Amino acid sequence: MVRTVSSIAPVRRLRAGLMLGAGILPVLALSAAAQDVTGQAPSLSEMVEAGDLPPVEARVGDEPEVVEPLNAIGNYGGDLRIYLRGSSDHNHILRVVGPQGLVRWDPEYTKIVPNVAERFEVSEGGRVFTFYLRDGMKWSDGEPFTADDVLFNIEDLVLNDEFAPTPPRYTSGGEPMQVEKVDDYTVRFTFKEPYGDFLAELASPLGQHPVLYAKHYCAQFMPDYNDDVDALIEENGATDWQNLFMQKCGDIEIPARWGNPERPTLDPWIITEPYVGGATRVVLERNPYFWQIDTVGNQLPYIDRVVAPIDQDVESLILSVIGGKVDFGLRHIDPPANRPVLAENREEGDYHFFEAKSTGGTDMSISLNLTHKDPDLRELFNEKDFRVALSLGMDRQEIIDTVMLGQGEPWQHGPFEDHPYHHEQLSTQYLDYDPERANELLDGLGLERGDDGVRRMENGEPVRFQVDVIPTFDPTWVDSLELIEQQWALLGVDMEINPMERTFFYERTSNSNDHDAAVWRATQSWVPGQIPQMLVPVHHDSRWGIAWRDWYLSGGSEGEEPPETIKTRLELYDTARGLTDTQERIETFHEIADIAAEEFEVIGVSKAVPTYGIVKNDLMNVPESMPSSWYYPTPSPTLPQTWFWKDE
C-alpha cells in the first residue's frame, strides 16, 4: 500500500504523536503556481528593477508552499529583535529561523506537514519514504536545490563514517538507510525494517541533515570533490578536512552554523553579521529566494531582518525586555521568579505575555554519572539505594514554594497523568520527603558518618561530589541546588554546586565524561521525534550514562558495554522506533519505562509547568499560546516568517 501524504495526523488524544496508521487530514498549505506569485519586499523590487535579481516568480520556483498566516496578511519591513545569551546560544537562532527540513510539525504540535518537500509517500509498511521536492526551488544564493543535494547530504556526509558516525535516526534494524534519486526532484529513503518514527525524527531540529548542506558550495571542503583541499585546510588553520567542513558549513547544533555568511541555506533569513567570537550582535537578512508565499501571493518573510544583540547574563536580558529592546522572548527569561518584574513593566516595555505550554516531564533533573571514571564514585552512584536515599532526602515542596513561587508539584520525570504515555511508577515514586528512611538506606550501605558529619565511603573518602549546572540556562536550577545541598547535608552527603559556562558544561558532561553529576531538563512525553534520553542512554543529554551512549552510537566500537538492563532497553527502543501502530508503540515504551522505574537512574524535582514569553504589542500573527519544546522547536512551527509589524 502506498499512502500519498500532505500531512499525517495521529489520534487526537495522542497530542503530539505521529503514527503511520493515523488518518490523513486536509493539507495546511495549498499548492501554487509561480505565475500567482506577485508580491515581494520593496527592497527586492528595487533590485529586480536594477537588474541585480531575477523576478520573484523565478526566485520562488514553480511549487512554492502557500502558507495561510495566523490572523492577517502582513506588511513588509522592520526588524525582529531577539537576543542571545553569550557565545553558546546558537540554538536560539535555530528556534526562530527554524530548522528547514523536509517536513515540520504543525503549529499545534499534532501532525507532520510537508516543508522543503512538497509532499511525500510512505509505502511497504513504513519501510520506504518517497519525498517530492519543490520544482525550481533554490538555495539562498540562487543556485537550484535538487535531489543531488539530498544525495550529497546523505551519501557523502550522513552515511560517511570518515566524516562522522551515522546518527541512529537514519538507521533501522541495525543498518543505515539507503537513498535513491528517482529524478531531479524526487528522492526515496529505504530502511531495512519499518520505521514509524522517521517522519517525526525528520521534523525535529536534529532531523534536518538531508537538506542542510548545499552541494555546490560545501563539496569544495571535501577531498572527494577538491584535489586542493589541503590548501584550504592550511589557509583556514583547520586540523583536517572534517574540521574545515565544520568551520565553513557548520552543523545543526554548533555556533559555526551561523558563522559563515557565504554558506547558502534554505532559511527565511540568512546570516550577514555572523555569530563568531567577539561579536556583540548577530544579524540575519531576508533570503531573496525563500520558497514560501502567503495566500495572496506575497513572498515570505514579511520582516526584513532578525537582529540579535548578545547579552552575557539573564539579568541583562531582563533589563533589555523591560526597556523595550526585545520584540520576542522566551528562552532564558521564563522562570517564575522573573514573571513579577516582567508583568510590572509590560506597559513600559510595550509587550504582552504569551503562554508556553509544557509537553510533559520535569524542568529539572539530576543525573549521577553511572559511568564515572573514578571506580569508588562509580560504585557508590550505581547503588540504587543511594539514589533512592537522595530522592527521599529532597524536600521538593520546599523547593517549589521557595524557588518556584509555589508553581508545580513533586515529580520525577515522564509524561503527565492525562497523556497516553503516562507511567505512574516512573513519575511518582520516591517523591515523599522522608529523611529518616533516607538515612536508613545510607546506613545500610555502610556509609558511616565522620566527625564532621559527612559520611565516608569504604576507602575512607567523604561522600562528596559536584553537580555541574549552567546558571544562565535556568536560574532556578542554582537556587534549587542550594536548597538541595542543605537538605542532603542533613543526610551526611556533601554535594557541591559546580556552575559553568554552557560550552564547558557540554565538553565536560557530554563529551569527555568528566562529571560527577549534572542538571538538565527532562520535559518529554516520549512521542515520536523526541529522544527519551532519561530512559535510554542514546543522546548527549543522557549524562547518567555517557560511556554507554558512546557504545550504542558507535555500534560497540567506543565507550563501554552497558549492563543487561541497559541493553534490553536499547533493544526495545530500537523496536519502538520502527513501530507503525500507536498502541503497540505505547506498550513498548511502557516496557522501557518499567525497567527504568525499577532501576531509578535519574532524579526529578518538580512537574514542568506552563511558562510564558513576551511579544511586542504591535507584532502580529504571533499565537497567544504555543507548545514549549526543543523537539517542536519553539517558536519555529508557528512560522515567524509570517509575523509582521502592524501599520500605524
From TrEMBL:
GO terms for molecular function: peptide transmembrane transporter activity. GO terms for biological process: peptide transport. Keywords: Signal. SUPFAM superfamilies: Periplasmic binding protein-like II (SSF53850). GO terms for cellular component: ATP-binding cassette (ABC) transporter complex; outer membrane-bounded periplasmic space. Residues 1-29 form the signal peptide. CDD domains: PBP2_NikA_DppA_OppA_like_4 (cd08500). The keyword Signal applies. It is found in: Periplasm. Residues 111-528 form the Solute-binding protein family domain. The keyword Signal applies. InterPro entries: SBP_5, SBP_5_CS, SBP_5_dom. Belongs to the bacterial solute-binding protein 5 family. This is ABC transporter substrate-binding protein. The lineage of its organism: Bacteria, Pseudomonadati, Pseudomonadota, Alphaproteobacteria, Rhodobacterales.
